[in-house]
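WARN no homologs supplied; continuing
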Amino acid sequence: FFMTDYEKIYNFENLYRAYRKARQGKRWKGAAAKFEVNLLEALNLLRYQLQTKKYTLSPYNTFEVYEPKRRVVMSNAYKDKVVQHSLCDNVLEPILTRSFITDNYASQVGKGTHYGLDRLQEFLRRFYRKNGIDGWILKGDISKYFYSIRHDVLKTLIRRKITDPDVLWLVEMIIDSTEGNVGIPIGNQSSQLFALLYLNNLDHFIKEKLGIKYYGRYMDDFFLIHEDKAYLQYCRAEIEKHVAAIGLSLNNKTNIYPLRNGVDFLGFHTYLTETGAVIRKVRRRSKNNMKRKLKKMRGLVERGKITTATVEQSYQSWRGHAAKGNCYHLIRRTDHYYNRLFNSKEAEKCQKH
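OK structure emitted
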């Protein structure tokens, strides 16, 4: 039977699926356990509140993270996570992503960092076949992206895609759930999709109006590859105008580099050799961060704050990332460092205490 977009959000089966997604990796948390104990009542209450528009958002839990840089994260209550999953999976993602270009890599099914890295590699190979190693790359980054997104601009963009007034009521409540008229919470699932949409017009402008074939973006991080430096300077000026119109600015890391220097993108330094081979190395900062993190975790294990299983999971995740590059020797060296910290007799002793 036909369901309106808004009915899809509070449909019981969709809410149950959303709950299952929201609990992934969080079942041990108090809020998740509490929700699960009275699951049917909790889901029925959510369904009723959405249906009658009595649903309201709980206050955010705000905290800071320092990796890879200092950011303020606003995490929502468990019931709100369930609603966001249902909203994003059943309505926002299917509608909003239709107009996205292929080279918009973040937060979408079938895409992600490794997809973006593979596209960059493909672009470099194609460029080399046509132009050799002599080219230029404009590497851009938006300053304080999530904190600078204007609510009025975002709502206008969404209204062009979504017409169901009830869905708009919910979406606009979420957008306006932070103080002021600028900025969206980093911790919200919907914020990821809003951030992809906010620069969607820029993506089309760069590909279609500026005619840049080799372009890719991961959230607020993007690159343009071209044989003519002067043309990239023109592109930069046009991009600056475009983002200024929606309340954004490029940060001071934005620059034009010779292609032979390579490019830092998605945690790797990717570069072309004279023979046209593409090499991908973990960035120096990422290497140092991992070593620092392991050392810090060793202290936390000794104090009984975390288990070695947590460390192992974190390290294997980094290892999987590094394995996507040409990093055989780095992985071996870091394995050695990891084993020295956690698999020695000394490490075993501190686990017993």
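The mean pLDDT is 90.
OK
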